[in-house]
Amino acid sequence: MEIPEIPNIPAQGFLNNFLQGDGEAEEINEQAVAQARDAMLRQARQQVDTEICLICNQDIVRTEFLDHLEPCAQQNGKDVKETHIPKYRFLSTNYMLDQKMFAIRDELEIEFLEVLWDKETVHKMHCVLCKTYNEHLNGDCVPNLQKQAFLQKMDQMLNLHMCYYETHLELKKEREIEQIRQAHENEFEKMKKEVDQRFPSDNVIAEQNRQAEYRDFRERVAEPNAKELQEYMAHANEEYRRQYEFKKRQVEAVARREAGLMDLNKVIEYRKILRDQGWEAAEEFDKSTFPTPQNVPDARNEETRKWLGAIGRRQD
Ligand SMILES: [Zn+2]
Ligand SMILES: [Zn+2]
Ligand SMILES: [Zn+2]
Fold first, then answer.
1. Organism's domain of life (predicted)?
2. What b/e sequence results for 112-140 when a residue is b if at least 16 CB atoms lie within 10 Å of its CB, and e otherwise?
3. Could you give the number of structural domains in the chain?
4. Given 57, 92, 127, which residue is the final one in a domain?
């Protein structure tokens, strides 16, 4: 059995405030942190809805963004290749990370609650801890509250997320290299036009002159053009490596936060409050328990209400 490792690198920027739990500093800055957090959440909510499409320059609802790209390129007479960069950029946004994180947690929570309701369903529950099927049927992994399963699923998902980001950077680099090559080609065409005007005749001598000029030009620019490409690539590799490392630290900070939030006892408590005291009390509990919104399955949907009823029957 392989237990995934959750990286423990210090968080960057504002996440520090929530992740570091540095006692004294936290007390002193409590108000400032609360204000910063409110501002951040407000901003997050505002940004949550749309994403700008750089092909048509329109704001597109995020849930429709991926489906929007190809038809948009077609309508705007662009090659489908033009959708690749926006696609991988979008796939590696923090928004998508949150969505995927939420989906994993939601799935594991529902599976787990199902088992609380009906032990027979344990065979359907995701498991990374039990060594044999019988151990699992016996519920040996239940006390772990799916923490380990969550870490494993999250680890896989984060790897994929970073892979999307890497693809995004690679595609950007390719495009920029293509643009440099195109600029070199344009210079050649410009020179060719001039030369053709200077030697317009349709005879062997003129043709020889033209070819000689083309050759001279090629020889003259070969070295500086190659140098330009090499310099660009060295710069891009360095710059993208730096961006990749930054993204990785960001994602790791999210991972550490999420690992801390995966607490099914609290989710069950949340659901009980929701059942007994209503939506407002549950939201209060949610806010005071979890530093970011949407950490528990949406209690307004029908499936969740079903589980609430189930837990009610079991725990009353
Ligand atoms: Zn568009
Ligand atoms: Zn198990
Ligand atoms: Zn990769």
1. Eukaryota
2. bbbbbbeeeebeebbbbbbeeeeebeeeb
3. 2
4. 92
Q: Which two tokens stand for residue 284?
A: 């209060």
Q: Which of 103, 129, 100, 124 is nearest to 112 (CA)?
A: 124
Cα(159) to centroid of ligand 3, in Å? Answer: 8
Q: Encode pLDDT of 14-48 as tens digits.
A: 223 323 333 333 343 455 555 555 555 555 555 55
Of 262, 259, 261, 295, nearest in space to 5 by CA:
259
Which ligand is nearest the CA of 64, by number? Answer: 1
The whole-angstrom separation of Cα 251 and Cα 247 is 6
Whole-number pLDDT of residue 314: 41
Pairwise CA distance, residues 256 & 254, whole Å: 5
Give the integer Cα–Cα distance in Å for 1 and 281. Answer: 41
Q: Residues of 6-30 as b/e, b for ≥16 C-beta within 10 angstroms?
A: eeeeebeeebebbbeeeeeeeeeee
In a domain, 107, yes or no: no
Q: For residue 251, is it within any domain?
A: no
Q: Quick check: ipTM above 0.85?
A: no
Distance of alpha carbon 296 from alpha carbon 97, whole angstroms: 16
Residue 170: inside a domain, yes or no?
no
Question: Domain range spanning residue 280?
Answer: 262-292
Q: What tokens were used for 74?
A: 């077609």
CA–centroid distance, 81 to ligand 1, in Å, is 14
- Å from CA of 112 to ligand 2 middle: 11
Handedness of CA 155, 158, 160, 162 (dihedral sign): negative
On whether residue 280 sits in a domain, the answer given is yes
Centroid of ligand 2 to alpha carbon of 111 (angstroms): 12
